[in-house]
Structures are given as structure tokens and as C-alpha cells.
Design a protein that fits this description.
heterodimer; A: 292 residues; mainly alpha; 11 helices; 68% helix; globular; B: 307 residues; Rossmann fold; Alpha-Beta Plaits; 2 domains; six-stranded mixed β-sheet; 13 strands; elongated
Chain lengths: 292, 307
Amino acid sequence: MTAAPDARLFDLGYRSYDGPREPPERALATLAEFTARRVLGLGRGGRHKVLPAITLAIAFLPALASVLFSVIAEDIGVDELISYGEYTFFIGSALALFTSLLAPEALCPDRRSGMLGLYLAGPLDRTRYLAAKGAAVVGVMLLITIGPLLFMFAAFVLAGHGPSLGDAPLLLVRIVASGIATALLYAALSMAVSSFTTRRAAAAVATVLLLAVPASVVRSAIESADAPNALDLLSFPFVAAELSYRIFGEMPDHDSPVTKLSTPVVAAGLAAAVALGFLVCWLRYRRLESFR
Amino acid sequence: MTREPRVIADGVSKWFGPLVAVADVSFDVGPGVTALLGPNGAGKSTMFRMLCGLARPSKGTVRVLGRDPRTDTDVARHIGLVPQQEGVFEPLTAREFVALSARLQGLADPVRAAAAALEQVDLDPSDSRRLPTYSKGMRQRVKVAQALVHDPGVLILDEPLTGLDPRQRVDMVLLLRRLGAEGRCVIVSSHVLGEVERLGSQVLVMSQGRLAAAGDFRELRALMDDRPLRIRVRTDRPRVLAGALLEAGAAVGVRLDGEDVLEVDTSDARALARTLAPVSRDRGARLFEVHPLDADLEGVFRYLVER
């Protein structure tokens, strides 16, 4: 018996992977999802869930209270409860707390641990990496900038206190627009701050300071030195709250320099702060020499 | 296995303000294992950053598989990076961590790919422990697994042997040799020269930001003709043999060590090899051992970085 004439030996050495590949955008979505889960403490130990849960609870509490009052106390009218427009103002501290947790947790550990090098050595370049992180931070911020309002909206509709069928779509658009504007502002500022340090605590404190200090300094300057009202655009939490009032067509029941500015000026101020925040963050990462 | 270059550095320099980290370095690396060696501050990590596209050369070009790793993110799909840092990246299980890498690389079945990569480095994909509980050696292997998960043609490992115990080093060396033998281009930086020698003979030596040598370290040793090679000869008549070798011009210096050991310095190892046996025979000296003392990688490295 002779060997088969077509006998062959095959080289079992390295062959590069030539199977199906998802497009690079998929990597962006993966990182955004992974980051969102991380900052919310999902898939991590209990202690990582505590702060996000507390902040979410603080943000939803006014909405829950409003809905409960509207159901239990029938003599209280909906217009006596917290309005959609003033909600952003009402949960300002929760927003500041949440954003000071989110962006530092999303950005700082990657640079500190060296994970950033692994991401950037893969199909993510710096811009895509930041887009994924930004999407995650904004997405999670939307939980508290839109979530409570949507909850209120749904509850009021179910309880028969809601807007008419004709007004509902416009109100929904206003809820989404206000939520996105607020989330973008807080996300941009906290990401810009977080791009300067690898320490989460330092970034968190700096974020709170950025939200609180300019507001008090600017307002003192306007009151005592007669500085222009436009300077109040640096009072970032008040700018977000003011724009929210205007998106819902409401008037705040308090007087402040930013309320004296026109709506286009307030909107432009917020847009400029958002653009500047993301630009600072992008410039920081563009210059970063990353490996560990 | 073809030896065509997979990684090419051409006149690469990198400076940070007034500090020149890498100065006019050119080399190419083909399939197999190549060690990038150099003392601290030699520019190895900066070179690695540029090879992975994490830093832009101030001058010159870097090409991986013919493409610029800094601007062409598609080539990243063919690069696997094992970074140096000791910290565990994320509090995940090994499988979750490697699967995250697979998802980022766009693999169709990331969970299966992660399991395959972990098996390749002899780790159990079903292990439910989180990475912080792993030993140093296991974490290093997880890092290699995440670099292998997308089956890259180029693997870059920064100090993969640091911190491992001797047994873990042997395992890691065997793994890297296997990956190189499969035809991947494996570039390893390390300070553990004894183990690097076992990885293979191809080296790139950097010193003070410049490329001090490139190639097979044994051939490099042969090129160091300004430095005598020291040979240890064990014989029953060391004094007689010492005189004969000096007389024949095959040795530039000799040193007696104990009763039966002679250390011979020669500037021409081939001439000594040709001369030693006939001279020993003529003088009635029996040879028990002939062994080069400083032809190992450590000797070559010390010479290159100290000259």
C-alpha cells in the first residue's frame, strides 16, 4: 500500500483573525456602556452603588413628593406643586453632587491605572474615546435631568392632572430639551475639570468648586461693583436653571442677574460653556502622552 | 516563516521640550521574539508608546504592518499591547476583562474569544474570582490574554517578566516563545536579561535614547573586537597552556584561577578556537572544559550601555 498521492502537511503557524468584525463605532458604544455601568456601580460591589443611588434618590424625591401630594391632597392644585421649569433649580445640589461623582469616575481611573493606554492602543483614538466617555456621562446625567420630569409627567397624566393630549408632545419636547441642555452643561464642565487630574477626589472637589465659586464671586461683583449682568453667565448652575425656566415658558419666583438677560444670551452662554468644557477636555487628551 | 519587517522605525526621534528621549533611532523587526533592552531612561517606554501610536514621533516615521499606528486606527486591530503597570485595571473577572477587550476590538463573539485567549495562557475562563484576587503571575497572563484576544500579528509587551517569581518567569518565557514561533512579531522589553536570553537571540539595545545595537546578540558580541573575549579553559596543565597560547599569539592575556582553571583573553575568538586544540595536543595538556565567560546577553548588554 502506498501513500495517497495528494498527502500534504499544513503549516499550523499564526494566521491573523479574518472573521467578522464590528465597525469601530461599536467599540465606542461598548466603552460608553461599560463606563455608564461603572459610574452607576452596576456589576460592582455594594459600596460603589451607594452614592449614585443616594443622588438619584435626592433627584427623584421632589418629583415623588409632588406626585404624592397631588394624589393624596386633592385640594392642592398642580400649579401649587413644583413645576417642570423650576425642577432644575430645585435639584441643583443633586446635580452638582452627581456630576462631581460621574465625570471623575468616568475619566480619572483610566489614566491612573493605565487602562487609557490599552483603549488607545485599540481601535479607539482620543476623540472616539472622549466621545464614548462623554456619551456615558451625559447619558447617566439624563437619568436625573429628564428622569424625574418624565416620572412626574407620566404620574400626572395617569392621575388626570396632566397636560391635555394636544399639549403633551410639546411638554415632552420641553422636558427632553431642558434635560439635554442641563446634562450637557454639567457633563462638559466636570469632564473638563477631570481631565486635569488622575485623582477622583480632587476632580470631584474641583467640580463642586467650579460650580459654586464663580457663582458667588460673580454675583458679589455684580452687586458691589456694578459689573454687567452678562457676567452672571459664569454662575453655571443658575444658567442651567434659568434656561430650563425659559424652555418651559415659566418665570422664576426669584430675581437674579441672569434673569435680566435675554433668552438667546442665556442659551448662547450655556452653549459656549458646553463647547468650552468639551474643548478643554479634548485638548488635554490630545496632548496626553499615554502609556501608563 | 517570512522575515519581512512588520515593525519599522525610520529615523525616529522624540523630545519633550529640551529633553531628548529618543534620538534618530532606526530598526525593523520581523516575526519572532525581539527583545528591546536598555537601562532605565534609555527611551524604551517612549519607543513603545510610539510603536503603539500612543505618542507621535517628533521626527521620523514609525510603521506597523506598513501603516502609521498614530493615525491609522485600523492597524490597532493587529496590535496587542501588554502594558507595564502592576495595577489591576478593573475589578472584573478575567473573562469579563478579556471579553471587554474583545468587544472593543469588534469581535463577533467576544465571550468565546475571551475564553479561547484565556485558555491560550493557561487560565481557566470559568474562574469567577475578580482580578484583584489574582496572583501577580496570573494577572500578567490575563494582560497577555487581553492582548491576544483579537489574534494580533504584532505583540508589544512592556516588562512582562517584572515581578514574577522564577517559575512564573519560565512559564511566561515559554508562552512568549510559543507566540513568536507561531509567526507573530513579539517585541518584549525587560531588565531580566537571563530570561530574555531564553526568549531568543534578537535584540535591540537602547542607551541614552539612541539605538546602541540591533541583531543577534551573539553576532553582536563577535563584532565587539575592541573588547577581548574571556574564555575559561579547564585543563590539567594550565601554566604550560597559558604560555603556549601567548607564544602562539592566540591570547592577549591569561589568568590562572586555582589548580586547573585558566582564563584566556583573546581579541580573536576564531583564531583561539583554531589554535587551542593543536597547542594543547602539542604540549600534552588535556582539555576538560572550554567556556566563554562574557559572551552571554548580560555581557553584551553591559558592554553596549557602558561604552
